[in-house]
Design brief:
The complex is a heterodimer. By secondary structure, chain A is an alpha/beta fold. Helix content of chain A is about 50%, strand content about 5%. Chain A contains 18 helices and eight strands. In chain A, the strands form two sheets. Chain A has a four-stranded parallel beta sheet with strand order 2-1-3-4, sandwiched between helices. Chain A has a four-stranded parallel beta sheet with strand order 6-5-7-8. Chain B starts with a helix and ends with a helix. Helix content of chain B is about 55%, strand content about 10%. In chain B, helix 15 links the parallel strand 7 and strand 8. In chain B, helix 7 crosses helix 13 and helix 8 runs parallel beside helix 10. The chains are: A alpha/beta, B alpha/beta. At the A-B interface, helix 9, strand 4, helix 10 and helix 17 of A face helix 6, helix 7 and helix 15 of B.
Chain lengths: ~475, ~400
């Protein structure tokens, strides 16, 4: 790793930047415009987010809070858990544990820094971690393995049985750093009683582990409060989904990033509720006026991201969609799979409910919710309903009136690359032109954004979509 | 005797499989060492571990699997697509890893365009990632479900008595293989690593009764074999990703500088797993033995246990150095090899990590060059055994 990279901790650097960014709305417009001249390398990400108005500012503040929590955790006497994006942080918050969600940090480092996370990615490889592993974790894992981040007290993940490369990153980290480790492990089925019991038993085991590691008892009232807040948030996301169905959609491209990043950081916390509420308010106004959320005001096409977005520097992918007049209909990351979601009408019995009436129902709710987090639900199989990833994608495509599908991921994603071709063949059969991006969402060294953009342009041109 | 074992170890459709099929026998393939073979044996079915050898091209596999996938399941799909596995009456897919899990979708989907390549019984056997408590209960139920599915599909009845008989027979094989391992651990090694690996692999692809007899004869023969006075070859252990290809072991041994005295690969002796308890409920016993030890890195969070296992094999077989290999895109073994290398080198055990593509003789030149360079390192320093001996003398 380059010596200059070792000067500061990764999370501290991100925190400093975001703290400054979150304060930009506190000054005058003139001050802000002057500031942009001094931050040429950050203006590309700051400005588009700030231009989203209230939700943009709230998002910046929320991310700043999240990072500040990490860098100040030990000073405040809190434990720090390394975890993954598809793990609901609610249980950690209920035990006063601060989550370090590797993928969130990798994403924003890739979006913000010209160097991306290359040094941290490569550092993992130097330690013996495979270079073929997923960059979503590696992008920030390298920093923590190098001691360039908050000290990790424990490692908790929930991807064994769902995504081996993800699970492997966390087990490697636990072994390398010699930290306590718990894996929530998922069966290949989802909808039967036996599977639900397994989810619950495993989750109970995790609570025991967390209590033992922190020396604290789970604060049930706190957890109940969080779940009640998640109930509200799920409803707000469902409202946003409903507005997404409008043509043109009043939701700007960036809202999708806000929805899932907010959930991964602060599910069950008021910051996220505020963000969602502001997004609804802004979208409502546009919806009433029949306006598109795109900056050009003209929606030419509606694209569904069947996996994840592309996090090239300065939000270039999101900006490209916006410029092209392509509405971003979200993907698996921006969906909740709550039992009252509209799209679950076509996928009965596969969502989760929230019941906070008793201890048992509380724990069961959070366990079943966790089993339906993005990726955990969508790509674990499931083999009690072969084709569920396809079924669920088709349901969403129909509901949101999508014109096409775009796949983006990482070369480290063994799971999706293992079924992507049959999956895309089926989507094409159903009449949805499908483009597979051969990029790394978190590492532009694999394919530069310029090349990715050229290929996207080709796809839309050749398929006669734009 | 060795010819029969080699035939089973090196050919997809060996003479033994042909004879079994000609006699009206059924064969069910499986893809992972967590599948209890005894269940099939007790059903009168030949359990057959599905392999990737004999692959000559990859056009079918590439049409279904993406580019960033381990070549082992790709080879399996390619062979299935070419009809090489048409003799299977059934196939069991397990979530050994993401790539192997997705073999399920890709094989089924390929069956839409290439009729007849999906066996009539295509079954998903779910193996949890933890071996105690609810993990153990889940696995037990999976075995019960598998038995029920076999009974329904093939019209057989799997009784406890039959299961006990099968367990006893398989345990006999396990005991013989343990004897073979003990022979390999002796000062003077009387069987090459290549032969020993072939012997172990043959057990996954031929009728068990016959295999056990051959194994018994071989072990007797080896016990009687006169040994050379001194064996100066370096003693090597091979670990890592799935490998059913003898050429990798041959490559290590062909220069005559080394002999492979142990492996920890999911084919080979490890495939045989633990001794199964012969008393009590046979399903309980199978569940406990097969899921019991977390020998595969898919059992997350058990690195220390696996390191301890490796160290005990290194001690027992007096291993001088470890060859760690992983198939490209096998992150589980690849990353764990990184940790093993760190911890074993600290203890003075030389290690080499090789990332490779799966496939017979693929990349032989590159691998040979790296292995030769590794041997140079080994021969330019006193071996670990010599060092220990010298220290004892002091």
């Amino acid at each position: 790793m380059r010596p200059e990279i070792k000067e500061y901790n990764m999370d501290w650097m991100l925190s400093s930047i975001m703290m400054a960014a979150s304060k930009t709305a506190d000054g005058s417009e003139k001050e802000y415009l002057r500031l942009l001249e001094y931050i040429p390398y950050f203006s590309g990400i700051l400005d588009p987010i700030k231009k989203e108005g209230k939700p943009g500012i709230t998002f910046l503040k929320m991310f700043s809070d999240y990072l500040e929590n990490i860098v100040t955790a030990h000073d405040k006497g809190k434990k720090v858990a390394m975890t993954t994006f598809c793990f609901s942080p609610s249980i950690l918050y209920s035990l006063g544990i601060v989550p370090v969600t590797l993928e969130v940090l990798s994403t924003f480092a890739a979006l913000m820094w010209k160097r991306g996370t290359a040094d941290y990615l490569d550092f993992c490889t130097e330690l013996g971690f495979t270079e073929t592993a997923c960059s979503a974790q590696r992008g920030s894992l390298g920093a923590y393995l190098a001691g360039l981040g908050a000290k990790i007290d424990m490692v908790v993940c929930d991807t064994p049985g769902v995504c081996d490369t993800n699970a492997n990153a966390f087990t490697f980290a636990a072994s390398y750093l010699d930290k306590p480790y718990y894996q929530l492990n998922y069966p290949q089925t989802l909808t039967d009683g036996r599977t639900s019991t397994y989810h619950l038993d495993d989750y109970r085991g995790m609570i025991e582990f967390l209590e033992k590691t922190t020396g604290k008892k789970l604060d049930l009232d706190h957890l109940r409060g969080i779940l009640e807040e998640i109930k509200i948030q799920d409803q707000l996301v469902a409202d946003l989904d409903d507005m997404h169905r409008l043509i043109p959609t009043p939701l700007p491209v960036l809202y999708n990033l806000f929805i899932y990043a907010g959930r991964f950081m602060f599910a069950g916390y008021p910051q996220y509720t505020k963000l969602l509420t502001e997004m609804i308010e802004a979208s409502n106004e546009r919806a009433k006026a029949g306006e598109s959320g795109l900056r050009s005001g003209k929606e030419k096409l509606r694209a569904f991201m069947c996996y994840i977005d592309h996090y090239s520097m300065d939000l270039k992918f999101f900006d490209w969609m916006d410029r092209k007049g392509i509405a971003h209909l979200g993907g698996i990351l921006s969906r909740t799979f709550r039992d009252n979601s509209s799209y679950l009408a076509q996928l009965p019995g596969s969502g989760y409910a929230i019941d906070t009436t008793s201890f048992e129902s509380l724990i069961n709710s959070v366990a079943q919710m966790n089993a339906r987090m993005p990726m955990i639900r969508s790509i674990r199989g499931p083999y009690d309903r072969p084709g569920m990833a396809l079924d669920e994608t088709l349901a969403l495509l129909k509901m949101f009136n999508a014109d096409c599908v775009i796949y983006n991921g990482t070369p480290g994603c063994r799971n999706t690359w293992g079924f992507l071709k049959p999956f895309s063949m089926e989507l094409e059969k159903y009449g949805y032109p499908t483009h597979i991006m051969n990029t790394d969402a978190f590492d532009e060294r694999v394919e530069s954004w310029e090349v990715s953009q050229e290929r996207l342009n080709e796809f839309f041109k050749i398929r006669g979509l734009l | 005797m060795m010819e029969v074992l080699y035939d089973a170890a090196t050919r997809i459709r060996s003479d033994r499989v042909n004879t079994w099929k000609e006699n009206g026998g059924r064969v069910v393939g499986y893809t992972c060492s967590y599948v209890p073979s005894e269940v099939f044996h007790a059903s009168g079915i030949l359990p057959y571990r599905i392999r990737g050898i004999e692959t000559e091209s990859m056009e079918i596999a590439d049409a279904y699997f993406g580019p960033y996938i381990c070549t082992f399941p790709k080879c399996v799909l390619q062979l299935a697509g070419k009809g090489k596995y048409n003799f299977l009456d059934g196939a069991i897919i397990t979530p050994g890893c993401d790539s192997m899990r997705r073999l399920d979708e890709c094989w089924r989907k390929a069956g839409d365009t290439i009729p007849g390549i999906v066996p009539p019984f295509f079954y998903y056997f779910d193996v949890p990632h933890k071996s105690t408590g609810h993990g153990s209960r889940w696995f037990r139920q999976e075995i019960v479900n598998l038995i029920a599915a076999l009974e329904q599909q093939f019209g057989v009845k799997v009784t406890d008595e039959k299961l006990h008989d099968s367990i006893r027979l398989y345990n006999k094989g396990r005991a013989l293989l343990k004897e073979l391992e003990d022979l390999r651990a002796k000062d003077v090694v009387t069987i090459s690593g290549t032969d020993a690996f072939a012997v172990a692999m043959a057990g996954t692809a031929m009728p068990r009764d016959e295999y056990t007899k051959h194994l018994e004869n071989l072990v007797d023969e080896l016990k009687k074999k006169k040994s050379k006075s001194k064996d100066t070859r370096k003693r090597i252990m091979i670990i890592g990703s799935i490998s059913d290809d003898l050429s990798l072991v041959q490559l290590v041994e062909e220069s005559g500088q080394a002999v492979v005295v142990a492996e920890n690969l999911c084919f080979g002796v490890r495939d045989e797993g633990n001794v199964v308890d012969e008393s009590g409920d046979p399903v309980d016993a199978l569940g406990k033995a097969y899921l019991g030890e977390s020998t595969c890195p898919r059992m997350y969070g058990k690195y220390k246990e696996r390191l301890a296992t490796l160290k005990s094999i290194i001690e027992r077989s007096r291993v001088d150095a470890v060859v760690m290999q992983n198939i490209r895109f096998c992150d589980l073994h690849g990353s764990e090899n990184g940790l093993f290398e760190r911890d074993l080198e600290k203890e003075g055990i030389p290690c080499i990590r090789l990332e490779r593509e799966y496939g017979p003789l693929v990349e032989t030149g590159r691998l040979r060059m790296r292995i030769d360079a590794f041997f140079e390192r080994l021969y330019s320093h006193p071996s670990r055994q010599e060092t220990v001996h010298d220290m004892e003398a002091v």
